[in-house]
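Deviation from plan, reported transparently: magnesium ion complex.
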Amino acid sequence: MPFTAVIFDFFGTLTPSTPAHVWDDHAARSAAPLGIPVPVWRAALDSSFEERATGSLGDLRSTILTLARRCGVDPGETALTAACSARAEAQRELFTLRDDALGTLGAIRERGLAVGVLSDCTAELVRAWPELPLASLVDAAVLSCEIGRRKPDPELFLLAARRLGVTPGECLYVGDGGGRELTGATACGMTAFMLYADDWESADAQPREHDWAGPRLSRLSAVLDVLGAA
Ligand SMILES: [Mg+2]
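Because the crystal trials were delayed, the predicted structure below was used instead.
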């Protein structure tokens, strides 16, 4: 069946992969206004990823407040606002796209295919999404913290297809392999490709599908070659 839609993972796929030291730097920036030691704050962020990615801690302000209290700090309004701003700003830097991302999305749409994004993400991406340059090129975005599920939950993949108005079998899925997304997409009937770009090996912040034996792309724009051959 020819593809009628392409669904992309966001972090490490449409954006470059993020090395672990960047996460430390980002944690330090939101820890400072709260007066929480960076390792303690980093641990609170890391251990709450499941909760944050499924939306159970609420919006950014609610999330930061809950995590600060878990660290033994009850921040005042000024400190909380400053920490939220620092966190949002730091996260926003991670929303910078790969050089070939917008061109690739535009070319896919020019071919008449729909474009979806499926991301395991936290409240910061939801908040920033409408202002991101790719938003107008994406027909449907499924963001885990809005749905309350994480990859590889099949419902996320099926929801993305439904929102695009296509069947899973018509979807090409492209991701760097976080959250066992490639296996998850395949199990739902999609055709999955791993984006194995130059930065894949050097960025180890999140566990990925090292055992993926399926097809790979060496750069994002190579998805156009796959579509051309389909
Ligand atoms: Mg990813």
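Residues 20-93 form one domain. We consider this an acceptable substitute for the interim report.
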